[in-house]
Structures are given as C-alpha cells and as structure tokens.
Amino acid sequence: MTLPSGHPPVTPSQVGVLLVNLGTPDAPEPRAVRRYLKQFLSDRRVVEIPALLWQPILRGIILTTRPRKSARAYAQVWTDAGSPLAAVTQAQAASLQTMLGPDIRVAHAMRYGEPAIGSALDVLMSAGCRRILVAPLYPQYCAATTATVVDAVGAHLATLRWQPTLRYLPPYHDDPAYIAALAASVRAQLAALDFAPDVLLASFHGMPERTLHLGDPYHCHCQKTARLLSEALGRPVEVAFQSRFGRAKWLEPATDARIEALGREGKSVAVVAPGFSADCLETLEELAIRGREQFVAAGGQKFAYLPCLNDSGDGMTMLENLVRRELSGWL
Ligand SMILES: C=CC1=C(C)c2cc3[nH]c(cc4nc(cc5[nH]c(cc1n2)c(C)c5CCC(=O)O)C(CCC(=O)O)=C4C)c(C)c3C=C
Ligand SMILES: [Fe+2]
Ligand SMILES: [Fe+2]
C-alpha cells in the first residue's frame, strides 16, 4: 500500500532537539523591527493588559515610535551574520549537532520571527523525528518567555493529526552544570581584565513586579542563580534588573540606576548577564554600550561587560549535559 502524499516518513524514528530563543528582527531597519515588535508585544503572556486596551496603545503609540529608535540600537550591534541573537543561536545549534552526532537531529527556532517554532517542528518531523526535546534557552522560568514557547508548540501541535512525543528542558537556574559553566566563564573573563572589579553585578532582564506577586518564579530563580554563582566564585554578586518597558513598576533595583550610582561612588564594575544564553540587543547595546556610557558620565573609570556563555566551550558543554540528561531513555 502506498502512503498518501504529505504523510510523514514512518521509518526510521529519530530523536530531535529544538533549541528555542526569543527572536529578533530580520534587519536593523524600522519596518523589520516593527514587524517583530508587533508579534512580540501582542503576546498576551508578555503584556498582560486586556487586548481591547493594549492594542490601541501598541498600534497607535508604541509601533509608531519605538521601531525607529530600536532600529538605531540594533544597527549598533548588527554583525555580518545578522542579529547577534540569531547568529549565536544558530551557532549553538550547529555546535550541539556536532556534539550529539548523527543519531540526534538538532534544529533551532525563534518564538517571534524566523525560523518559526511551527516550521522548525515540521522540519524535524520530516526528518523522521517522532520524539522531540524542546529546549527553551531561558535558565530562569518566566511566563513571558518559557511558558509562551510551550504555548506556541501547543498551537502548532493542535494543527497536526500525527503528533510527535515531546519533552521540555526544565528551567536550569540552579543546575550545577549551569552554575559551573557560568562560574568558569566569569572567572576566566575576570582574570583577563586589567583591573579587579570592586563589584560584580549580575543583570537579569526585568519583569513587571506584579508578576512576582501573581506567583511567577522568575524573580526567585534569578536570586538563586546569583546566590549560587556567588558561592561558586567565593565573592559577592549583586543583582539588578534591566530593560524596563512601560509604566508599571518593574523588579528592582534597576541595572541602569545601579551602574550610575557605582560610577558616582568611584567603584570599578564588571557586569554579567546570566539570564541571557546568547548576547543580544539587551546585553550588547544596553549593557556594554549604554551601560558603559552611563557609568563614565557618572564619573566611573573602570567598567567591563562580560559576554554570555553563547557557543563557548563552557556554554556548549553545559548544554550538551542538560540535553543528554533529558534524552535518557529515548536513545
Ligand atoms: C531573558 C529573559 C527575558 C524576559 C524575562 C523578557 C521580558 C520582557 N521583555 C519585554 C520587552 C522587550 N524585550 C526586548 C528584547 C529582548 N528581551 C529578551 C529577553 C527577555 N525578555 C531578549 C533576549 C531580547 C533581545 C532580542 C534581540 O533582538 O536581541 C524588546 C525589543 C527591543 C527593544 O525594542 O527594546 C522589548 C520591547 C517585556 C515587555 C517583557 C516582560 C513583560
Ligand atoms: Fe525582553
Ligand atoms: Fe532593552
């Protein structure tokens, strides 16, 4: 009997891994940024204001002003390989594929923009993957990041007759492999500086404070990562939250306010961003460029931004360990 056209291959069954990050515009231009922001900021998990109220604000104000400003920021960090977040995520997937070998198929996707989660799942299934591990690359769980990946996967699965079997990589904010990779990376980068910073500032992406009171574990996950990193390094690690958006009260202290105060106090500072698995606009422009400018304008002299784990040896070994552990029983 021949299979109907469009039927996925029945053999051989392969295991797939789908790395997912937030997403980024296709170009550092207002039109592309607008398209990206429209999809991102229309997600009800990201902006938890009733759509009837929020959509007019989004379309009438935010999407008419922010894309131009954000495009200028993107242009400052854009690379020959595209947006840093896209380039790094792609490099992580390629490197993980090499580490895991041909029996496991690795793909990557972006929650907003391209490659979309649905098309990446289709690619894995066409390659024969009936079991797929979805790995949202957010160490700290947050409804606005982790949960929305699961929503998008579920929305795609809802369109399929023959669904794959799924597993999800749990949040890894306190996983010894993650803490060890972070500590090794920070230790090596501090040793390469020409100064010993008075303060090591761990800057996490902010969230509306309300989400903490509603039970989102994100704030606690960030605090625990910083405490474990501090214990591993044997030195204090200060926590701050960056990238405030909108008028609501966000988690505090704010990174920009702390950087400015430390500059005023004449302290030397190294900033690390443990919540980002890849360097992106929020780290390269907001911390490494703007953060340094704010620090110097406040009178500070010695400032360093320490890059994320990205596709470094430390970062990839961690990812391989996390993924292999979740795949046990499937191979
Ligand atoms: C790592 C965790 C992240 C959380 C939590 C998060 C929450 C969150 N973000 C916004 C608004 C924006 N974020 C933007 C960029 C951005 N955010 C994250 C990660 C988290 N966001 C990343 C990795 C990036 C970088 C993307 C890139 O292309 O490099 C932006 C877009 C840029 C800009 O215009 O400033 C917005 C807007 C909200 C509202 C929110 C939680 C409620
Ligand atoms: Fe964000
Ligand atoms: Fe930002």
TrEMBL record:
Pathway the protein takes part in: Porphyrin-containing compound metabolism; protoheme biosynthesis; protoheme from protoporphyrin-IX: step 1/1
E.C. number(s) listed in UniProt: 4.98.1.1
Keyword Cell division tagged: no
Subcellular location: Cytoplasm
EC class (word): lyase
Function: Catalyzes the ferrous insertion into protoporphyrin IX.
Protein family (similarity comment): Belongs to the ferrochelatase family.
Name of this protein: Ferrochelatase
Organism expressing this protein natively: Sphingopyxis jiangsuensis
Gene: hemH
